[in-house]
Design brief:
By secondary structure, the chain is of the alpha+beta class. It has helices spanning 52-62, 125-133, 153-157, 176-180, 187-197, 205-212, 226-230, 237-250; strands at residues 17-29, 35-47, 82-85, 88-91, 106-109, 116-118, 121-122.
Length: 253
């Protein structure tokens, strides 16, 4: 479907609209345990500044109320609306329609490697199971401190990048190893382990490294950089994974 700019708006300063086609993957579970998978096309009149999330809302509110997808904050913080848009993992709330070549159908489908529940909604439990396994919390020993645990700016900078993770699963579900091996911890779990391994206040680094030294752990990474490209927060995911590998060998953290 070729996008066409609408006639000049009557009101001065109004934003022009154009027609775009969204091709959405539909996964429809049946009562008998079977499921139907198909692609549905929706034509919409949109603004260039509209996001894919706005277009999905327009479909749900005006054309097909059965369309199912996750979203919450709509500002790139909660990470709940991660999906494959034109074959790449993105957040629907951060992806502008004008940046996607609206002269062609824009494809929207669920992220890969996780079971699809309905339409664009996947079962995130395997993802969060790996996240929980690396113990994503501060581990300390001794008595409760009487004052704040202090760090220098340099100590904080050591793990600052990996604190940005919003657990959207974009990195993990863009990983070819994860697609073929659902037991692999995945980039997001390793990123969150990195956040604590290199935290000067934490005392559980050795435990986390032992967990990630498993055959489905950090050594499964093939350094394809898909995860880094997919991260909507700009985290250097592949670099973080390499730093965890190095710490595994040198025990320097």
């Amino acid at each position: 479907m070729t996008a066409t700019i609408a006639d000049a708006p009557a009101k001065v300063g109004a934003v022009p609209t154009f027609t775009v086609t969204l091709r959405v993957a539909r996964h429809l579970p049946g009562d008998d345990g079977t499921a139907v998978t198909r692609w549905d096309d929706f034509q919409l009149q949109v603004h260039g500044t509209d996001r894919v999330l706005d277009a999905l809302h327009k479909i749900k509110w005006e054309q097909d109320g059965s369309l199912t997808f996750r979203r919450s904050c709509a500002h790139g913080i909660c990470g709940s609306d991660a999906m494959r848009i034109n074959g790449r993992n993105r957040l629907a709330c951060k992806t502008l329609l004008k940046d996607l070549d609206p002269s062609k159908p824009i494809t929207v489908e669920p992220i890969k490697g996780l079971p699809v529940i309905k339409d664009l909604v996947v079962d995130m439990e395997p993802f969060f199971a790996s996240y929980r396994e690396i113990m994503p919390f501060l581990i300390t020993t001794g008595n409760e401190p009487t004052k704040e645990r202090l760090q220098s700016a340099e100590q904080r900078a050591r793990f600052d990048d990996t604190t940005k993770c919003i657990l959207c699963a974009s990195c993990t579900s863009s990983c070819p190893v994860f697609w073929t091996d659902g037991q692999y911890f995945g980039p997001a779990a390793i990123v969150n382990a990195h956040r604590f391994i290199f935290d000067s206040r934490d005392e559980g680094a050795a435990q986390r490294l032992e967990i990630l030294n498993d055959k489905e752990g950090v050594w499964r990474c093939r350094t394809t950089f898909n995860c880094t490209e997919a991260c909507p927060r700009g985290i250097e995911v592949t670099k973080a994974i390499q730093e965890v590998k190095r710490a595994m060998i040198t025990r320097a953290f």
